[in-house]
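The aim of this short unit is practical: by the end, you should be able to scan a pair of folded records and say something sensible about each. We start with the first protein, listed as its amino acid sequence and then its structure tokens.
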Amino acid sequence: MLSSSKELQKEFWIGFNHYCKSNSASFLIREKPVEKWHYDIRFGLGKAKVSLTCNTKQNYISSEIYISDDKAAFHFLERNRVAIEKELNLSKQLEWMLLPEGKDSRIKYAIEADVFDRSKWTQYYYWLFTHADIFFITFRKYLHEHYN
């Protein structure tokens, strides 16, 4: 049996899947969402992915680039930081996290969100969808350049 938070997250991602299917996404939709705090979208390039989060403990949602065990890819993206942030045209800067003590790196953009308030889910789906879309398009271009 799932915990109440895991059940809520599963319902949230099922709703997000339905939202994505009714809109045109540049990324592939997961067939079956899982009861986790994140929803991953693969680029098909290297070890990087777009990871959407639904954090019920710290009350935020985010769109981020998660890079597993490939610091060179992170450094390549960081060298193109100004151009990437200009293309994304976000209201605040990305959080660039090399995480030197581990193998993984992250580039994160988050907003406060009360995921327990189901009346706001459509608003959160829209935010996640639009940011996943622009992250997928923008970062995939740079990662393609890096890996080829």
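Turning to the second protein, read its sequence before its tokens, just as you did above.
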Amino acid sequence: MVTVNAGTREEVERGDLVKGFQVAKNEYVLFTKEELDLVETESTKILDIEKFMLRSSIDRLYLDTPYHPVPSGKAGVEALAVIREAMRKQQMVAIGRLVLSQRERLCTIEVEEDALQMTTLRTEAEMRRSLTQDRRRKAKTVARPGQGDRSPRRRAGR
């Protein structure tokens, strides 16, 4: 993978990359690795359920990656069984938060047969990026009149 400067399109060495946060146009606060390690989100292995809602109220476009959560210990198994049966009766899904790969993610938890399925949710920023990339991809694959293959056309029978 080649890393390039977004402004100049010049190649940048991996060792020259820095991490920071934009506070104004062309103004950034830079962080050292040590500073980032201090604020690193720890994986708690805990799924925090924030609320329950109707499945139909969640746009499927936001669904990202499915997982099957496995409870730890007898108390976890019993708690998940109670939650699963209540969700099944009410036809609800849970919205929760958890830490995956040092990043806090929103997710849905829904009943799937006799188990629960957890699916991470895309953020609006991820959705915008995905839609922009799809539009660019489509624009590249659709040939405009007078563009594309410039080889001479052969007529049938010649």
